[in-house]
Design a protein that fits this description.
Blueprint: H1 5-11, H2 14-25, H3 30-37, H4 41-66
Helix pairs in contact: 1-4, 2-4, 3-4
């Protein structure tokens, strides 16, 4: 599953990818991400939630394709 993480991240919309990277990989808070990107707090929360879901779906789909 981990091998699909990189391509999965590339498949996300840019704003989702940015928020997911900043939150999960850089350890930034919602407020820090909002300050850094100019997105509202609601946009940050939504981008992280949607990006996480889309990434999970992508990885699951690719894993199932190989099974």
């Amino acid at each position: 599953m981990v091998k699909y993480l990189s391509t999965g991240m590339e498949s996300l919309k840019e704003e989702q990818r940015i928020c997911v990277e900043l939150f999960y990989l850089k350890g930034k808070s919602y407020q820090q991400i909002a300050d850094e990107t100019g997105y509202s707090m609601n946009e940050v929360k939504s981008n992280i939630q949607n990006g996480k879901r889309n990434l999970k779906n992508y990885i699951t789909e690719k894993s199932n394709d190989k099974a």
